[in-house]
Each structure stands twice: as C-alpha cells, then as structure tokens.
Amino acid sequence: MKISADFTVVPDDFAKAAAPEYRTGGVPVISFPFYVDEVAPDARYLHWTFTDPDSIPVCGFEWIHWTVANLPIDALMFDFNDSHALQIPPDFSRQMTAMIPEAVQGRNSSASKFLGRDNDPAVIMRYNGPQPPDKDHDYYLHVYATKEPLPGLNQGFWMNELLHRLRECGETPDQGGMFVTGRA
C-alpha cells in the first residue's frame, strides 16, 4: 500500500495557521486530503492513525491527532481515470459520520482528562491539526487495510483499542504510511 499527499508540509488550512472558521475551540479541525494506492485486492476496510512522535520530548507521549476505523473502501469515490483511485477528501473528518455512518472515529489526545478541555466531540473525536509549540514536527499517517471490519470499535474508541483489534483480526493487514511536516 502507498500513502501520499500533494504536499510534504501540512498546508495552513489544516494546521496551526488555520483561519478561525477552520477551528473549533481554538483547534484546527479541517482534515487534510490524502491518497491510498495499491491496496491489497482483497481488502475491504481502511483504518488509520495520525500521530506526532516529535511531541514526546514536549509532553512526554506521542500526540494522537486522528484515528479512524472500519471505513468501507467501497464507500469512497473511485475514479479509474485518475492515478489515485482512492482519495480521502479535505474535511473528511467532519463529514465522515454523515457520509459513511458505519465508519467510526476515535478519541485523540485532546480527550485527555489531563488537559481539561471541553468534551466537545468535534474536538476530542475528530481530526486535530498539527500545532507544534516548539519547532517543526514530523507527523506520521499510518493506514491499514483489512478484509473484515474490526469488531468492538465504536465512536470514541481509543487508539490502543484499534491497535489491539488489528493485532487480533486473524489476518496480516495491508499497511502503508507517510510522514508530513507541521510548521511551528
């Protein structure tokens, strides 16, 4: 599987410099577009994590920005004339629940009880754009594909639950990833 985007630095609309209308509670919430190519032919579901390993020296853990599970590949638009058959469109995080209700999004690090943030699902269970406080950070988007949906994952699952279900699914998931940079 190959994961790609039309950028290597996350554009401002999806990150720290996002305009106020692209934020909720001060957090950038418009997810960036990306492509998923060369998926195993028998795969039917996509799942992903978007994290910030460079946050470890800043806050002591890898910041979770976005998790998705059980997205049926058939629900995505295919354009056989395009070199990228599967595209995750911009702002997919906010639109996904209405477009594809069987797919679920998990909690991100904004849901931590240690942050004291509002419990607004638009912030704690959707995409949170990069906002590195100290210097540019490299973020990792890791996409998995499976033949079957992962059981037991509901809206607001935790990333560790997704990783456990991937390990327990009885198959070796197809997977790929990419790094992008978020500006400080």
UniProtKB/TrEMBL annotation:
<dbReference type="Pfam" id="PF01161">
    <property type="entry name" value="PBP"/>
</dbReference>
<protein>
    <submittedName>
        <fullName>YbhB/YbcL family Raf kinase inhibitor-like protein</fullName>
    </submittedName>
</protein>
<dbReference type="InterPro" id="IPR036610">
    <property type="entry name" value="PEBP-like_sf"/>
</dbReference>
<dbReference type="InterPro" id="IPR008914">
    <property type="entry name" value="PEBP"/>
</dbReference>
<dbReference type="InterPro" id="IPR005247">
    <property type="entry name" value="YbhB_YbcL/LppC-like"/>
</dbReference>
<comment type="similarity">
    <text>Belongs to the UPF0098 family.</text>
</comment>
